[in-house]
Amino acid sequence: MTFLSKKSVWATVIVLCIATAIAANNFNPAALISSQQRHNDEIIAEQLAEHIGAQAYVYGYPLVDMAKQMHNETHHVNDQQQVFAPVNRIYRFPEIVGPHNAGNIRLPNNDTLYLSGWFDISKEPLIIHTPDTNGRYFTIAVTNLYSEATHIGRRTHGTDEAYYALVTPHWQGELPIGVTRIEVESNQGWLLGRVLVDGEKDLAAAVTVMDGIWSASLSEFVPGQVPARPTAKKSEPINPMKSLAFFEHMNRALKHLPARANEAALMAQFDLIGVGPNSNFDIANLDEASKRGLQKGLAAGIAIVEAAEVRTIPSYNGWMSPSKVGRYGFDYIQRASVVANGYGNLPEESTYAATVTDTNNQMMSGDDVYTLHFDKGGLPPVNGFWSLTAYALPEKLVEQNAIDRYSFGDRTEGIRYNDDGSLTLWLQHEAPADKSKNWLPTPAGYFMTVMRMYEPGEAILNKQYQLSRIKMIE
């Protein structure tokens, strides 16, 4: 049996059509050629839209995710809305995060209080004030639309009272005396701040520090004066991540972002399907072939990001600790996967290590009892502090427990070292009979643990320091 290619089949159809047309004495070669050309154009349009569309989805994922979050958190979108602040203002979360108030925070920690805000510096800089924290740890991640971060905080600038100005690289004006310039690549972006809180007893003091962090556009800035809050705007929430509207938001963002070095060829590819910076994407104007292709490309892009979100990354003693966070270069899949998991600080600000298995390579469960041991002198070498948190799977949230303890670290009250100076943490769902044990309550079902190391030392950053594996007690 002989199998013909699509090209051969098409050629055969043309020959038959020509023969039939000649026999009928109505041969029109121009019409046949035009029909074939339309067929070829449709193939090209559909295939380009599918394959470039998938790549565009991965590339554009942080741009669109941030556009979605910015809209939904700078407008009143529902009565149950937790996070809201107008553009260029800051929302402060005045509670220690626990199982009942985590909201949309992914993998929440209760080491710090959170603050959040979205900025737009397309017309003028934004001034940010930070108070004297008297040495208390704080950081503000200034994240551009590519999900790349710059930090303001104790590690980078100290803890004295200060003013900072977010400016675009091309801004040529003058800043007030004493204001530190912070360049941001994109006109819009996100501020995510953290202020250290040592439990409920420290909450009031931490809130006071957090309340001292505020922002004002340059034209309304008066030193020491918090500006008025604009009137809230109402809107419907948006979520374009799984529809063709994704490409509308991506196209809109690219048209306002400065060209990045060595990405001109990639942008030209995106323009071929109408989503690049030199195009005006409009779903209503798409031909059917391009629409079919983009739908396929959208599905492929979604599948790639979802797979990247849960892929296994290189582990050290069973602990997964990504080092490429906050700076991505051309690794667009890594960038999208980090965004899908909740953004992140630069590793030198805080390094995270996560594991879901014990020394037997078995998933950890609340049915069992585990230990994490640190030899004397083997605690994480940090300039800040460290903590371990257990999260229920698959929700990745902390679970209510009898003692309201949702992390264990170097600041935990009542921490007890072994006689030889080592430290053992006990991870279990039920309270240990021995009340002197360093107990971190775990969820009832499967769980993962995350070790946070703030202001990590060089040994952590270069992977020289290794955490021990979590061991199940038989």
UniProtKB/TrEMBL annotation:
Recite the UniProt keywords alphabetically.
Signal
Q: Which domain of life is it from?
A: Bacteria
- What InterPro entries does the entry give? DUF1214, DUF1214_C_sf, DUF1254, DUF1254_sf
- Domain DUF1214 residues, every copy: 349-457
The record, for Pfam families, names: DUF1214, DUF1254
- Tell me the ranges covered by the DUF1254 domain, including all copies: 87-213
**Gene3D superfamilies registered for this protein in UniProt:** Domain of unknown function DUF1214, C-terminal domain (2.60.120.600), Domain of unknown function DUF1254 (2.60.40.1610)
Q: Which residues form the signal peptide?
A: 1-23
Q: Give the transmembrane ranges.
A: none
Query: Which PANTHER family does the record associate with it?
Result: BLL3101 PROTEIN (PTHR36509)
Protein name listed in UniProt = DUF1254 domain-containing protein
Give the classification, highest ranks. Bacteria, Pseudomonadati, Pseudomonadota, Gammaproteobacteria, Cellvibrionales
